[in-house]
Amino acid sequence: MSTIKLTVNGKAVSAEVEDRTLLVHLLREHLNLTGTHVGCDTSQCGACVVHIDGRAVKSCTVLVGQANGANVTTIEGISKGDELHPMQAAFRDNHGLQCGYCTPGMIMSAIDIVNRHSGKLDEDTVRHELEGNICRCTGYHNIVKSVLDAANRMKVAQAAE
Amino acid sequence: MGVEGIGASVVRKEDRRFITGKGRYVDDIKLQGMTFAHFVRSPHAHAKVKGIDSSAAEKMPGVVAVLTGKQIVDDKVGNLICGWAIHSKDGTPMKMGAWPAMAPETVRFVGQAVAVVIAETKNQARDAAEAVVVDYEVLPAAADIRAAIKPGAPQLHPEAPGNVIYDWTIGEEAATDAAFKSAANVVSLDITNNRLVPNAMEPRAAIGEYNEAEEHFTLYTTSQNPHVARLVLSAFYNIAPEHKLRVVAPDVGGGFGSKIFIYPEEMVALWASKRTRRPVKWTGDRSEAFLTDAHGRDHLTKAEMAFDKDNKVTALRVKTYANLGAYMSLFSSSVPTYLYATLLSGQYNIPNIFAEVISVYTNTTPVDAYRGAGRPEASFVVERLMETAARQLKVDPTELRRKNFITAFPHQTPVIMAYDVGDFGASLDSAMKAIDYAGFAARKAKAKSEGKLRGIGVSCYIEACGIAPSKAVGSLGAGVGLWESAEVRVNPVGTIEILTGSHSHGQGHETTFCQLVAERLGVSISQVQIVHGDTDKVQFGMGTYGSRSAAVGLTAILKAMEKMEAKAKKIAAHQLEASENDIVIENGEFKVTGTDKSIALPMVALAAYTAHNLPDGMEPGLKESAFYDPTNFTFPAGAYICELEVDAGTGKTSFVNFVAADDFGRLINPMIVEGQVHGGLAQGIGQALLEGAVYDSSGQLVTASFMDYTMPRADDLPSFKLNHTTTLCPGNPLGVKGCGEAGAIGASAAVINAITDAIGNNKLEMPATPDRVWHAIHG
User: Fold this and answer.
1) Which chain A residues touch B12 with a CB distance below 8 Å?
2) Contact assessment for residue A49 and residue A56, using Cβ atoms and an 8 Å cutoff
3) For domain A2-77, which CATH number applies: 3.40.50.1820, 3.90.1640.30, 3.40.50.150, 3.10.20.30?
């Protein structure tokens, strides 16, 4: 057992957990942040993607010890009160989700994709970048549309700041 | 159409909880005192269980109980059943082998549970399961259809000699044979319809909770049809009578058929919660999903089509072997029979059809309905034959199809189905225009000059949806009725709750069902709440599968709405001192036509509940329910055309264009309909190019993870161009047909027709991986 201290969605948290605990299980089972999902056991599906220190990471592949002291953001931490993050709004407006299970991981990956490409994105790049996230419902058509739409919204939001 | 009424692309109400991480899936639920289950599963495809030693496991930290197959049988928990009776051509009933929830004596597929460990934590349960020692005597296995039907093959069940479950036929054999004898041309194909793993992104999960004082069970489960689960668990599995069992299916992360069935893990969670007097949660991991979720497809077919000298189809003859796996899953028997062979007429006027279907046991995961369920297999047979015939007869494939299209409705096929309406020519025209079919030859020539192999492939599918009517399916062997139920509750303040037996696990019912209410009453969808997925709340329901929720479920809501509106009009007329025949409902108000007199819905509702001033003899309240059973299936149909290029050097396929033209009747929410088509197309393309469950000869599933089984990813797929043509379904008042499965039904033939066109070799199996395509080009 170890004591883990980290920041999750801006709040300092600590937990006493088995050393083999994965970050996704810490989030879901100890911190009750159940928006981060588990869709596979081989780090393929991306339903568990969160941000660690601003970068998209599959939280099923991170031992809690590796996240000690880190700044973690989950799907629950990206909207500002009632105001949705532009990526969340774009997924809703473009029907980028159906069952919703892959959606939190998709959104967290997509934000990272837009950030890394400084707003310059095309369909091929989005499709290539999304290969670590599996969706079984949408055929990706509207997810790609959502990400491209959000990239524009985020550019506009940045310009306004 | 209002801004939120029928036909409007309203953004989904349910999305906010999903995009903010506030969905509530089964694994998100925590109960007081909850324990965790981990199953001990067979590593062998076929073996005798000679003994189980759980003594070491029982002493491990946190272990509450280790339970075995022998105990579940001793406790008289019933065997799993198949609920659709099929009879062989000799009149004998299908041969169903016993399937206990955990195997007490014999395991018949890798992954079958023999015991379960219940512990305080998930890790403790998993650790202790590793310590359970099972003594197996390994038996020879039959891992595929050919191995199972060979003389001397290993026998799975004593009930089924030769591993044959049934040998079933449909259509007129003699007339079909005669038509083949007099045919001008005959086209034949051997077709493998590859086995698929559904892989809904949320793995299955279940929580059983037993209340000792009330002798009452609650099951939280990943189900597409919680009432059916309760019915089966009560009537057949002896878990608890219906009034002592509540089944809740909260947010469910996709189903695609795989969450229709009642699985051993759900039975064990309930049973174990009574044994341990603790809530028991089981959450499957992806490896368990690959091994235990019912798989789809897996047919071997020989198909022949006869033509006269004018290229009119005169007959179709099909012989199919269907692999049902090691046990008969809940609706497995119906999939390769009544959901498959009844659609073999496709969109064509075929006077003679005869099909024989032989379903067999193998030492593999049970096979049952997966998106399309039988209809993709039928459509693939018909559309591959059509394309092959066009090449053999040297005519344009669209012209050959057009020549044989059914153009007069209703049309009775030789295989049960009576198509009610359609315009197949219109869909084909629409798709051809969208892809510039006329310009293809020039594009192919240009691609050739650049060293690329370009192909085009057409697929004109038809399906039977809105699974019902009960009388019809009952006569064909179904053990249940397939109507739907609904209840409309107008609250005293005028807000509305719609309780439905349909279940939404991605389909967007919480939005589309509200749109019907908005259309009829002129109220905002924000005033309406859809309640589903809980047997304690919803009176009854048959659930969501077979693209039935709009045609059957939404029509049930309409029927309940009509009853509610009739009563509300009486109340409004009474309040306004007018005749009820003069009352119309507009913008949330009840108006007296031709006057400025009106009363708002909330005031009518309040009057219904205060009951101070109701018409004489009227009961208080404003709540009505309905059960709706349609008179026919619905028949969505359409045309898909795929244009692609093959790299001859690598065998890799790249999409140039994929167009769809679907006729779903009236669209409730075009945005959601298109989303359904996109997803279906992805699964159809996945089957054609990427996906395939592979067993080795010993019965090990070698594609048992996302590392080994190729799920379609974003960069495997194109963006789609969707079009709609419309003939309204006459079988239901909304004119809807259903859209959930079309993509998966029609897409795979379009892709394979396109690749075989590109490479000039018609012999190509699915999935058409680069390796297979390369060999098809180079031999």
Assistant:
1) 92, 95
2) yes
3) 3.10.20.30
Confidence at A161, pLDDT banded by 50, 70, 90: confident
Please tell me the predicted confidence (pLDDT) of residue A119.
67
Class of domain B299-468+632-778: alpha beta
Question: Which one of B9, B12, B14, B19 would you mutate to disrupt binding with A, by most A Cβ within 10 Å of its Cβ?
Answer: B19
**Residue numbers of B between 5 and 24 with CB closer than 8 Å to A:** 11-12, 14-24
Residue of B nearest to A139 (CA): B679
CB atoms within 10 A of CB A64: 24
As a whole number, the mean pLDDT across chain B is 97
Please write the tens of the pLDDT for every residue from B585-610: 999 999 999 999 999 999 999 999 99
Q: What are B296's strand-pairing partners? A: B196
* Cis bond before residue B351 (omega within 30° of 0): no
Provide the whole-model pTM. Answer: 0.97
pLDDT, tens digit (0-9, with 9 covering 90-100), for B608-624: 999 999 999 999 999 99
Residue B282 has pLDDT above 60, yes or no: yes
Q: What does the alpha-carbon distance between residue B400 and residue B633 come to, in Å, rounded to a whole number?
A: 27
User: Roughly what angle, to the nearest 10 degrees, separates helices A103-116 and A141-160?
Assistant: 50
Would you call B254 and A75 a contact, using CB atoms and an 8 Å cutoff?
no
Q: Any bridge partners for residue B695, and if so which?
A: B701
Question: What is the C-alpha separation between B13 and B104, in angstroms, rounded?
Answer: 47
CA of B582 to nearest chain A CA: how many angstroms apart? 41
Distance of residue A133 Cα from the nearest chain B Cα, in angstroms: 7
Residue with structure tokens 């033209």? B661
Q: Of the candidates B200, B680, B30, which has an alpha carbon nearest to the alpha carbon of residue A139?
A: B680
Residues of chain A neighbouring B19 (CB-CB closer than 8 A):
75, 84, 88, 91-92, 97, 100, 103-104, 107
What are B313-330's pLDDT values in tens digits?
Answer: 999 999 999 999 999 999
CATH architecture of B31-85+98-139+203-253+259-292: Alpha-Beta Complex (3.90)
pLDDT for B6-21, tens place per residue? 999 999 999 999 999 9
CA distance B396 to B389: 10
Q: pLDDT band at residue B360, thresholds of 50, 70 and 90?
A: very high
CATH code of the region B483-628: 3.30.365.10
What's the token pair of residue B566?
């009739």
C-alpha Rg value of chain B to the nearest Å: 27
pLDDT category at B466 given cuts 50, 70, 90 is: confident
Q: Which of B638, B661, B663, B679 is nearest to B256 (CA)?
A: B679
| Cβ-contact B598, B592 below 8 angstroms | yes
- The 8 Å CB, 24+ separation contacts for B496-499 are B496/B521, B496/B523, B496/B527, B496/B528, B496/B529, B497/B528, B497/B529, B497/B530, B497/B531, B498/B528, B498/B529, B498/B530, B498/B531, B498/B557, B499/B531, B499/B532, B499/B537, B499/B538, B499/B539
B505 touches chain A (CB under 8 A): yes
Q: For residue B333, which of B90, B166, B195 has the smallest C-alpha distance?
A: B166
* From the candidate CATH numbers 1.10.150.120, 1.10.3720.10, 1.10.260.40, 1.10.1740.10, the one assigned to the domain spanning A86-160: 1.10.150.120
pLDDT at B439 over 60: yes
* Residue contact A100–B15, C-beta within 8 A: yes
What is the average per-residue pLDDT within B746-766? 98
